[in-house]
């Protein structure tokens, strides 16, 4: 929650000494409130005041980084309860577990399967994010072996899971440089775990049995100097997880400091189908990391797609590149379709053309990534812009006819477009799902 | 440390709607909090699920979807009974045969089918037209009359055809589905117009025209969340149950239709999860009535709902 200029002013020395470059403390306070100055510019502010002002300006959910390099996962910095209020900042990370009781070959093949969970969607690459290594064997040596094996096989950040600080320490001695997440500090071991997290400078999960215990543990761990924390309220029961995740987010937004961190949730339903559905609920409802034990793309693709939908910035639609797209294998007689470069629009149209089983070309005009009607209403899908794209993209060299199909929703464009482009304009159905029957009845090149 | 639980103080609740007749009536809505937040308010009715039945054989359903309905796809009565056996709360009868591009069936023809289905199953009925606004304005009055007094749910009424459909609901004692394209103001406007014709708000279900996973979930999800928070904050014109046609959207996606492959995994598993995850995310956003297609999705989604409905601390 940002402070007002007056609230900030109350914390300043009120001497008007001008060392900050402003004429008065009040002017400086106003500049701070609007982000035009930084607190460091006043050399006289007291430590107490600095703490008040810093904590007021800190994000409600701390930014936590796990791993290093390109594959580093960033979580937190969330500022809202509903995506429509602004946006969700850091997509929930998907982690898949590997257990040290598995044989080496089994571990290797599972990690390889995890690495392969990479999907193309709306022109972007989407994948899972982390591998959790679980110390189930009870042998610290075996755990370290397993961790080494996994770390050597994937670039994804690791989560090291053991409640035994000695076991964690052995593993950290080997992989701390990769900044794995340690799971977990609980009521019994938090002092030792916090010490390890500090020593090796790695992020740490704090696990409490319920919200009350979680809050007090977080306070203690934070007092021991750990700031890169992830929260686990200790439940795997679906309804209770929703309650806890909702509370943690709400409290964080109200600046209840112990809950101002991202969370981790385990989708551990015994029924593997149901576990995927639970994971979907957690993705929608505030989980920072979701752990799910599946390397089946049929499970992971829907989850990754849901995550993409939930974390899309409502103010910034995803766009596709404005160029010629070939659906199936079109030839000189194939139909040419016009649409906009809003990815959702483009993929609806492309999908429906594919469903028609008649190959075709699609030309998404650059409308800054908005839909057909939005683009039209905003003057971004005009006959001029459309014919410019038609002239520059090279479609005239690909087809022998001069006919183009436009969305039914913008039938009003047809006369002007025909005039400017010189192409015959066919008005297609309003909804692209009408393309298959339209094309069969109406197309002959 | 005792954490003080944060509860919102909502000022309004969603109206309760009853569909069908006792002893088989289904109740939806009545929520006084966001979905499944039992610590904060009431959610007296769980979300309900209808399976789709068509009045003509679908020609573009993938095999994994036709399989469970083998032998009944050309017979709406048998198909509806099958859905009842599969455990649906309601039957959603879709009058596709009336579509001018299909069989262009007459109002009398579709009315006869509606009547036959209603006589064969005791579950409450949702009767949906062919999607062509002018044609639906002709067939839905006939359909509504054929099952007069049975308190069905008829739709989809749009800004262009709501008048005749609303009048039918008034005269023959049905509820209405008010459809508007992903826009909260349009939705509200249509609810108001229907309500101004004296159909009580408690007999209107809102259809935000949801998209499937990957095809617009983000818009529908947020429109629904906004409608629900608006309702709880006192906007009476939005305080009605929302209906989500999840099956129709899911089963036209590439992800549901593409056969087994290495990159995407087995079609059956992927497609079912596509349908259920779409539904489950809309349940989190405030959906009350769900129209699905696959009986296995029905089962999986119901398990999810049952777990979500469990009271907890
Ligand atoms: C979400 C939304 C927005 C979002 C934009 C999201 C985006 N990326 O487009 C935001 C909030 C930014 C927005 C803003 C505006 N919007 Co707006 N918006 C919508 C809304 C609710 C949904 C649009 C959408 O995503 N549709 C889904 C996509 C997939 O649909 P589509 O692109 O039309 O594609 C379909 C068909 O056209 C067809 N199709 C597409 N291509 C092709 C090609 C061929 C060959 C064929 C045959 C068919 C076909 O098939 C597709 C699938 O069905 C619509 C209402 C609605 N439901 O249409 C209003 C709507 C489009 N917006 C509207 C308006 C007026 C605006 C604003 C001008 C409002 C304002 N005054 O500020 C601004 C303009 C913004 C700007 N300056 O850029 C109006 C347009 C009215 C009109 N007909 O002129 C609409 C219809 C709402 C309304 N009824 O008032 N909007
Ligand atoms: S430097 Fe500090 S004390 Fe001096 S005028 Fe600026 S704000 Fe006031």
Automatic annotation (TrEMBL), chain A:
UniProt GO molecular function: 4 iron, 4 sulfur cluster binding; iron ion binding; methyltransferase activity
List of residues binding 5-methoxybenzimidazolylcob(I)amide: 339, 345, 369-372, 432
Domain of life: Bacteria
GO BP annotation list: acetyl-CoA catabolic process
Sequence positions that bind [4Fe-4S] cluster: 17, 20, 25, 42
Keyword 4Fe-4S: yes
Keywords: 4Fe-4S, Cobalt, Iron, Iron-sulfur, Metal-binding
Keyword Metal-binding tagged: yes
Domain 4Fe-4S: 1-59
PANTHER family registered for this protein in UniProt: ACETYL-COA DECARBONYLASE_SYNTHASE COMPLEX SUBUNIT GAMMA (PTHR36214:SF3), PTHR36214
Protein name: Corrinoid/iron-sulfur protein large subunit
Annotated source species: Pelotomaculum propionicicum
UniProtKB/TrEMBL annotation, chain B:
Domain of life of the native organism: Bacteria
Cited InterPro entries: Ac-CoA_synth_d_su_TIM-brl, ACDS_complex_subunit, Dihydropteroate_synth-like_sf
Residue ranges of every copy of the CO dehydrogenase/acetyl-CoA synthase delta subunit TIM barrel domain listed in the record: 16-293
PANTHER family cross-referenced by the UniProt entry: ACETYL-COA DECARBONYLASE_SYNTHASE COMPLEX SUBUNIT DELTA, PTHR36214
Protein name: Corrinoid/iron-sulfur protein small subunit
Organism expressing this protein natively: Pelotomaculum propionicicum
Underlying gene: acsD
């Amino acid at each position: 929650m940002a402070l007002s200029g007056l609230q900030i002013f109350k914390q300043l020395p009120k001497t008007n000494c001008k060392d900050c470059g402003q004429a008065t403390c009040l002017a400086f306070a106003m500049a701070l409130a609007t982000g035009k100055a930084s607190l460091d510019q006043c050399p006289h502010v007291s430590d107490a005041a600095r703490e008040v002002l810093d904590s007021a300006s800190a994000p409600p959910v701390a930014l936590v980084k796990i791993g290093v390099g390109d594959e580093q996962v960033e979580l937190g910095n969330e500022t809202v309860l509903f995506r429509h209020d602004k946006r969700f900042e850091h997509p929930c990370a998907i982690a898949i577990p590997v257990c040290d009781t598995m044989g080496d070959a089994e571990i290797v093949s599972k990690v390889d399967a995890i690495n392969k969970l990479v999907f193309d969607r709306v022109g972007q690459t989407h994948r899972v994010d982390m591998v959790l290594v679980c110390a189930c064997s009870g042998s610290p040596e075996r755990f370290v072996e397993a961790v080494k094996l996994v770390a050597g096989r994937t670039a994804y950040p690791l989560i090291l899971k053991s409640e035994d600080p000695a076991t964690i320490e052995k593993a950290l001695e080997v992989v701390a440089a990769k900044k794995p997440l340690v799971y977990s500090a609980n009521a019994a071991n938090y002092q030792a775990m916090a010490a390890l997290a500090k020593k090796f400078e790695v992020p740490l999960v704090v696990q409490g049995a319920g919200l009350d215990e979680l809050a007090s543990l977080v306070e203690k761990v934070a007092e021991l100097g750990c700031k890169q924390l992830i929260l686990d309220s200790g439940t795997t029961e679906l309804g209770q997880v929703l309650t806890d995740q909702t509370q943690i987010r709400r409290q964080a937004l109200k600046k209840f400091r112990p809950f101002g961190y991202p969370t981790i949730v385990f989708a551990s339903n015994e029924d593997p189908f149901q576990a995927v559905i639970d994971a979907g609920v957690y993705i929608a409802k505030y989980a920072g990391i979701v752990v799910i034990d599946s390397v089946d793309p049929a499970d992971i693709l829907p989850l990754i797609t849901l995550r993409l939908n939930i974390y899309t910035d409502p103010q910034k639609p995803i766009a596709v590149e404005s160029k010629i797209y070939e659906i199936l294998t079109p030839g000189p007689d194939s139909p040419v379709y016009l649409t906009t470069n809003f990815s959702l629009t483009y993929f609806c149209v492309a999908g429906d053309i594919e469903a028609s089983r008649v190959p075709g070309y699609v030309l998404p005009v650059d409308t800054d990534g908005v839909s057909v009607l939005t683009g039209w209403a905003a003057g971004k899908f005009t006959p001029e812009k459309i014919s410019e794209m038609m002239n520059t993209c090279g479609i005239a060299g690909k087809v022998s006819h001069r006919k183009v199909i436009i969305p039914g929703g913008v039938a009003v464009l047809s006369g002007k477009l025909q005039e400017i482009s010189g192409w015959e304009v066919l008005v297609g159905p309003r909804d692209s799902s009408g393309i298959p029957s339209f094309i069969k009845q109406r197309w002959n090149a | 440390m005792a954490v003080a639980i944060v509860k919102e103080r909502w000022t309004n609740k969603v109206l309760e709607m009853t569909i069908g007749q006792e002893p088989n009536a289904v109740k939806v809505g009545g929520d006084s909090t966001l979905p499944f937040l039992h610590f904060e308010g009431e959610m007296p009715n769980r979300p309900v699920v209808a399976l789709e039945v068509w009045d003509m054989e679908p020609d573009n359903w993938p095999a994994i979807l036709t399989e469970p309905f083998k032998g009944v796809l050309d017979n709406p009565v048998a198909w509806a009974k099958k859905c009842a056996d599969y455990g649906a709360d309601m039957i959603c009868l879709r009058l596709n045969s009336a579509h001018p591009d299909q069989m262009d069936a007459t109002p009398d023809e579709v009315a006869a089918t509606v009547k036959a289905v209603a006589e064969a199953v005791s579950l409450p009925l949702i009767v949906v037209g062919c999607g062509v606004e002018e044609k639906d304005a002709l067939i839905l009055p006939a359909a509504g009359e054929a099952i007069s007094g049975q308190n069905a749910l008829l739709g989809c009424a749009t800004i262009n055809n709501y008048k005749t459909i609303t009048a039918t609901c008034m005269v023959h004692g049905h509820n209405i589905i008010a459809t508007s394209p992903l826009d909260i103001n349009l939705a509200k406007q249509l609810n108001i117009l229907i309500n101004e014709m004296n159909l009580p708000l408690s007999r209107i279900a809102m259809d935000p025209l949801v998209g499937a996973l990957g095809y617009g979930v983000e818009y529908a999800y947020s429109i629904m969340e906004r409608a629900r928070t608006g309702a709880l904050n006192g906007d009476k014109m939005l305080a009605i149950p929302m209906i989500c046609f999840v099956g129709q959207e899911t089963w036209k996606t590439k992800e549901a239709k593409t056969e087994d492959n290495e990159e995407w995994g087995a079609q059956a598993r992927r497609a079912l999860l596509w349908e259920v995850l779409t539904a489950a995310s809309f349940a989190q956003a405030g959906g009350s009535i769900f129209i699905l297609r696959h009986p296995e999705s029905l089962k999986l989604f119901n398990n999810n709902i049952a777990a979500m409905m469990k009271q907890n601390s």
